[in-house]
Predict the structure.
Amino acid sequence: MILSAENIFKSYGKLHVLKGVSLEVDQGEVVSIVGKSGAGKSTLLHILGTLDRADKGKIFFNNENISSYSESQINTFRNQHIGFIFQFHHLLPEFTAIENVTIPGRILNQSNQLEGRAKELLDYLGLKDRMSHKPSELSGGEQQRVAVARALMNSPKIVFADEPSGNLDTQTSEELHEMLFKLRKDFNQSFVIVTHNMELAALSDRTLTMEDGLIVS
C-alpha cells in the first residue's frame, strides 16, 4: 500500500465538502474517482496530493504519517514524491517542451542530467521531434503529454490527475488514456484520477464513486 487516507474531513465555512473519507491505494494501482460536480472529488484529490490540508483525518504515504508535516516539509515531500496532471496543462508559454519538463527537477536543484531525463520522457511519450517547440506550437494532445512528462520528472511514487482528458477530443482522450495505462504497465506507476469520463473509469483497477462528500461505492 502506497497511500492511505483515514477519516478525512474538510469544510469551507459552513459548507461541509468532505465528511469522513477513507481510502487506500496500492503500488501500481490505477484508481478513478467519479461523481457529480460538487461531490468533493477535486477537494479530496488536492488533500491527498498535499495541495490542501484536511480539517481532520490522517494521510499516510508508505505508512508514514505526513499529516503533521510543516509547510516546508510538505512542500519538499510533494516535489520529491508526487506528480500532478490537470485538465489544463499549465505549461509556461515562453519555455520549450523540454524546459517545461525539467521544471520540477530545477525546483529540487537537481541540475545534473535534468535534460537527459526530460529527453527520455518526451521520447517515451512520442514527442522526440517536438522537444524544442513551445506550447503554442504544439497540439492540445501534445501539450498534455508534455504535462505528463513534467509530472513524471522526479519519478514520483504516485501521480494525481484531475480530469486529465477533460479538455481533449475523443480520439486524443483515448490516446492519453492508453498512455497512462502504459506508464502503469512499464513503470508500475500509481495513479489516482478524478474524471467524468466513464470509459477511463472503466479501465481503472477500481472506481470510487463520491456523493455528498462521501465515498458511497
Notes: Strands lie at 3-12, 15-25, 30-34, 56-61, 64-65, 82-86, 158-162, 190-194, 206-211, 214-215. The helical segments are 41-48, 71-81, 97-107, 114-124, 140-152, 170-187, 198-203. The longest strand covers residues 15-25. The two ends are 20 Å apart (CA to CA).
